[in-house]
Amino acid sequence: MQPTLQQKLIEYLEQDLAVPSHAIAIGLRQHQDEVAPLPDNLLPMVLWQYGLITIEQLDQVFDWLESA
Question: DSSP per residue over the chain, as a string?
């Protein structure tokens, strides 16, 4: 089974940017009550909004998403 973009994004966040898995879980939980899953391009914004990644890391994630 091919990994989804969200799975690849989470792997990138954890391995390349060293974002702790508990921080990613917090970002994902913020939209847990939504009917639709959190779009991949919004997860980095949520992480940044809550101070879990820096603005520089946010830029890196958007660059990564553009090439993914």
Answer: -PPPHHHHHHHHHHHTS---HHHHHHHHHTTTTSSSPPPTTTHHHHHHHTTSS-HHHHHHHHHHHHH-
Q: What would the pLDDT profile of 8-61 be if each residue is shown by its tens digit? A: 999 999 999 999 999 999 888 876 655 466 676 788 998 999 999 999 999 999
Contact between 61 and 9 (Cβ < 8 Å)? yes
Q: State the total domains in the chain.
A: 1
The amino acid sitting at 23 is: A
CA 63 – CA 68 distance, rounded (Å):
9
Q: In sequence order, what are the residues at sequence separation of 6 or more whose Cβ sits closer than 8 angstroms to the Cβ of residue 15?
A: none
21: how many CB neighbours lie within 10 A of its CB?
Answer: 10
Contact 28, 21 (CB under 8 A): no
